[in-house]
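To assess whether the prediction recovers the assembly geometry, we first specified each molecular entity separately, as shown.
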Amino acid sequence: MVVLALINILLANYTELKFRVFDNFPKKKLLKGRTKFFRIPNLNSDIRLSRKFKFAKEHAKIKISLKRYLIMPFEPEKFVEKKISEIQKLIKGKAVIACSGGVDSTTAAVLTSKAIGSRLTAVFVDTGYLRKNEPENVKELLKGLQLNPRFVDAKEEFYEALKGVVDPEKKRMIIGEKFIRVFEREAKKEKTEYLVQGTIAPDWIESGGALRDTIKSHHNVGGLPKEMKLKIIEPLRDLYKDEIRKLARYLKIPVSEKQPYPGPGLAIRIIGEATPEATDIVREACAIVEEEIENAVKNKKMGKPWQYFAVLLPVKTVGVQGDVRAYGNTIAIRAVHSIDGMTAEYSKIPNEVLEKISVKITNTLRDKVNRVVYDITNKPPGTIEWE
Amino acid sequence: MKVYVVDNGGQWTHREWRVLKYLGVDTEIIPNTTPWKQIDSEGLVLSGGAPRIGTESTKLGATSEYLANLNIPILAICVAHQFLAMNFNGEVGQAEIPEYGKVELEVDCDNELFQGLPKKFYVWESHNDEVKSVTKDFTVLAHSENCRIQAIKYMKKPFYGVQFHPEVEHTQYGYKIFKNFLALCRK
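The predicted structure of the complete assembly is given in tokenized form:
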């Protein structure tokens, strides 16, 4: 085990840093160097990285890893300090937070509760478009974090509103408005006008406005209704997912590594009308993709993708199942690697893993799905989700 | 040191702001209608954006004023790169083969912007239009298989244009390109 210590840190000027790295073995292993990057935000990452490398190669790797990390100055502790005082100035009374149990909104919730304590109520909405076991898991999470959770079952309301809706932008707008109406009701009960949201940079960037084109209306920005009775507070709007994760780890939030999941949920993983029946199909397919990929990661067959899921396509094709002609829908598997969600490349999943997913999906969903395809599009030109 | 990001409505404008911030620079995103006299920074990054260069170049606001009146280093990205070429009598237009996502870039000559970088590396693109030709006031710094003019340098002032996006995570050596640009701003 190599123990690294960093000594002799000398800021030659504000962008240049000289460093020496050494281990607790013979002196000749001493490393000297300099870099033009200007600070060391997280030495632990370097130590963790360097452990993975063989002794013979370690020096070269340490150099590389130091370089890699020396340009990452997002500092969660400073950010938390600054935001807590900002939130305290903004919110004098009570507030509600829209909390899905994902990384962004849970981090926003914990941060806000650090600022205003029990004056915060976390509202979790079951839209009917959640993944398998998600409502139960989120309930447990929010109770554990002591965020005054309130659970709203709005399944029928959402299903009803999306009846016959096919256009992805319309879906997003309807979902955005439904969410706000639920939050307005809950805020009224709490006698507050403040709604905190875990909006992050890609949400408002992709939602567009003025000169910026609308790529997709995120439910929490572009999907907000024109008339609403709430004042919105977004403490994380300048951060990207990698920074949110750093913040979440710092705040010791148990879901810090959870994969991204869009607010509109399975409704935008169904191309075409998001009926309850179609939702059941894509929910099962998503569960299979998640389970098989997570197993493969655990068995070291592949690295963990940034995001991985299934999409139900309204494309019917011919197949043969049990000597009988089949005519069923298609499932697309999507898995990507990304840092911040603003660019992405499709994951190079081993064929044996893809095959296992494919067989399991068609065996489980029988007469519903008889074909599975893998999406090999990067972002750009694709986006990560299909709608 | 202060370097502003001029917003032309790009998907990655805020990424440019983030990269500059990570490199320890004071930075701010400003609208492209900001009068040039108000620009008190040591360098300027002009973002990409959705406007089509052929029909919507007026959407780039005061960009031509910046190019006419400022003498600080400017890094013009994507549509701003096309505008830089066009502003000084170059030819721009719809790309015969547009590029989206991963593209291999080949550096044509030694230059400050790509200093310390390999001759070939992967960059990420997202463009429908391109620079077709530049006048002899420019040096072409790099090309790709489907786009002959991927990076340019204006010889009369420290203005640089890149068709690709050095600010996104997937572009190799993106931070290094920004650092090289900042070294020019610091001079």
